[in-house]
Amino acid sequence: METMDRIKRLADFYLELMDLEKDKPFLEFTVSFDSEQMQQWSQGQAALAIAPPEIEAAGVFTHFYSVAKACQRWQVGPKPVTEEFLKGLEELSQGQREELIVSLFRVKGKNFKVPEEIKAPSGLLEFIAANAFKPLLKKYGDMVLSQVKISNWRKGYCPICGDQPTLAKLTGKDGHRELYCERCEMNWHFERLGCPYCEEEGASEASFIAIDENKQYRVYLCDKCKRYLKTVDERECGEVDLLCEDLATTALDEIAQAEGYQRGNHKDYCFSGVITR
Known about the structure:
Blueprint: H1 2-20, H2 35-42, H3 47-50, H4 57-74, H5 83-90, H6 94-104, H7 124-132, H8 134-145, E1 167-171, E2 176-181, E3 186-190, E4 208-211, E5 214-222, E6 227-233, H9 234-237, H10 242-248, H11 250-258, E7 262-263
Parallel strand pairs: 1-6, 6-7
Antiparallel strand pairs: 1-2, 2-3, 4-5, 5-6
Helix pairs in contact: 1-4, 4-6, 4-7
């Protein structure tokens, strides 16, 4: 019952986010790759690292604050959103607000600065940012895809934002594997065998957990890095929304973690596994 309550609250949270994302002026921007940036992307650098969009930080902060309020309302996130935390955001100067947004809108591996006025527990700012930036990154991804050939990308990390995949699906008549990034909702092709997290090519296809009554689901395991990847077989169930599938398969997370494996894109703010109680 507790698990179902958590899933419902997270679902209600995402429904509110969809309403908050409508007609946002900060989504107005353009992206254009030059020949050097195209070359960098083809060599394996994520688009966000080489051609970040010029974001309107003040507008993004307003949306960021609204998402923080939604986290408080639905009690989602790695830690509760407190009134003290919201007050700290409200009291930031315009310059501090912009610095916070620009710092959080970062590529993996780059540090960000947190104003001392904000009393934020580990992972909370990142969780809010990941949800607040999603509509921006989705639009950015669409712009990037109009300029590059996504079929040429074979890396284990997202070609748009550089994050690690959240889930995977087996699709098409041949059952090829596509990885999915929850941060920007991008899909891309990856080899059927092998671990996208540690790039271990010798991982056996037989190394997975399957559930007889739900043949569309399986969990691929990597014994080298001890991480797992939930996977949906669309040949069994038809086309799916992977964000919804992630919410619907929390039981698979529990099974894999009980066996000693860690979620592949593990972060303090991992979307489906952090619901405050």
